[in-house]
Amino acid sequence: MPFLDNVLQPPSYGWMDAKGELVKPSNGRIIREFFSRLNVFKSRKNWLPFFSWLKVLCFMPFFFLFVFKFMSPWMLLAAFAYSMIIMGTHGTIWHHRYCTHGAYKFRNNFWRFFTQNLTINVIPEEIYVVSHHVHHAKSDTPGDPYNAYGGFLYCFLADVNHQPIAKNLTEAEYNRVKLLMKHTGVTGNTYAQYQKWGSYVNPNRAILSWVLNWSFWYLAFYLMGGNALACTLFGAAGFWAIGVRTFNYEGHGKGKDKQREGIDFNRNDMSVNQIWPGFVAGEWHNNHHLFPRSARSGFMPHQVDMAWYYIRLMNRLGAISSYKDSKKQFYAKYHQPYLEQKTTGNVPAESGEKLITEVI
């Protein structure tokens, strides 16, 4: 696993100590690391995390206008639906299941572009995708960029402190980054440009994409409901941009064993299936860690999966040409043996052993 060991820029406090155990920095040290790595005057290679948080700050005026000027029951309902359901589901559809895991394929580049820009642009694909591969390979162990054992701030500020790619990759290593990103449609830097900017995406392209996306959606929302609706939904997107950074801490039990028998079948890490993220974003996280390449993670009847409903609909419309669905494997390998064990009282042969998850 040498590539995944080295692909992310390590924090100044390191991933592990001399004994191979997770370094748990103090909150003060995490915050100092955060501001150091946002400092574009110190190094222009810090531009991408700075850009990511700049977008968050740009949401704030919209949020305050919503709260203090345009707040009403209808606007509050619109903000809730957009932040909790639409933005959350889109993040699962685009960043998680497609960009990272390639769980489905688009018919052509138009439908990929359409899905990419279904919502207001928030998270740079590069920061999410590469680090998420590392997360699956090292989940809840040293090197996991959002390791819940590190604490809340360790996860919340991970997009700056732990998730950017390393700045000293060899050309061969950078080419492997390009392979991880190629299908996303995000145009990558040449190796010489990477050495200058320290990123896969070029700042000029990233800024242009951001401006065009935000301009389109503000105009669209304005035409639908004036400045009130536009400010409300942009403010809601900002609320989501902050809230989504808390997910992996919660989704891995806050560093504690919160897995439940008959619900969380993956025992290789601390991931848990949660009702709220599942219902609003299709993020049944323990199921996802069992079958990361599946376009569906809501396997059981009560596990609503709106991200899957979008993928399935687009497949029927011809926009998505193929997808992977691991529901049958889940029932055959995990759920049915569990039910048989409960019925007969027999301990299955694999009892006491770690379940083997699907290889990334």
TrEMBL record:
Record membrane topology: Multi-pass membrane protein
Gene Ontology CC annotations of this record: membrane
Domain of life assignment: Bacteria
GO molecular function, one term: stearoyl-CoA 9-desaturase activity
Keywords in alphabetical order: Fatty acid biosynthesis, Fatty acid metabolism, Iron, Lipid biosynthesis, Lipid metabolism, Membrane, Oxidoreductase, Transmembrane, Transmembrane helix
Pfam families xrefs: FA_desaturase
BP GO annotations: fatty acid biosynthetic process
Main location: membrane
Location in the cell: Membrane
Cross-referenced PANTHER family: ACYL-COA DESATURASE (PTHR11351), DESATURASE 1, ISOFORM A-RELATED (PTHR11351:SF31)
Sequence similarity: Belongs to the fatty acid desaturase type 2 family.
Protein's name in the database: Fatty acid desaturase
